[in-house]
Amino acid sequence: MHRLARFRLVVPLQRSPHPPEYTARAAAIGLAVAFTPTVGIQLVAIFAFWALLRWHPKTDFSLVVALAWVWVTNVFTMLPIYYGFYVTGQFMLGRWDDLSGYQGFVDVFNGAVKMDMDMLDMVWALITLAAKEQGLAMFVGSIPWAIGTAWLGYVWSIKYLRARQSARLRRFKETAPLETPPEASEETGKGA
Fold it and tell me: What DSSP designation does 7 have?
C-alpha cells in the first residue's frame, strides 16, 4: 500500500519540471476536489478548473499532479469518507441528535445500488441518493475537510519539493568538477 501511494502521489510530484509552487498548487487543488462529495465527476471537475485557471499564471497548476492527487478518494474509499463528511456536517448544522451510525449510512447507500448497474448508473444513483438523503450535511461537512486537506497538501508538497530541490542542488555542487582558478591557469601558460 505504501509503495502504491508513493508511486501514485509522490512520483508525479518528483517528475514535475515546474517550480515547487506550481506543483504544490496542483496537489492542493487535487485534494480540495478529492474531499468533496463528487466521486464520479472529480476528474471532470479537475479538468474544468485547469481549463479555467491555466490562463492566469498565478493560478495555473499541473493537470497531471492534480489528477493524481484527486484519486486519494475513490469508489473504494467513498463510503467512509462520505460518512465523515456527513457526521461533520451534522455537527456543523447543530443536528447532534440526528447522527445515524456508520452501518446505517452504508445500508442506505447499498440500498440504492443494484448489482446489475453499470458504473455510470451506479455513480448517478449514489449522487442522487446523496443529494436527497444526506446531501446538505455531506456538502457542508466536506468544506472543512476540503480546505484542511488542500492546505496540508500544499504545505507538505512545497516543503517536500523545496527540500528535494535543495538536495539535488547540493549533490550537483558536490559532484561538479572543480574548476582551476584563473591565476593558476595563467601561471601555467606563462611557463610554456
Answer: I
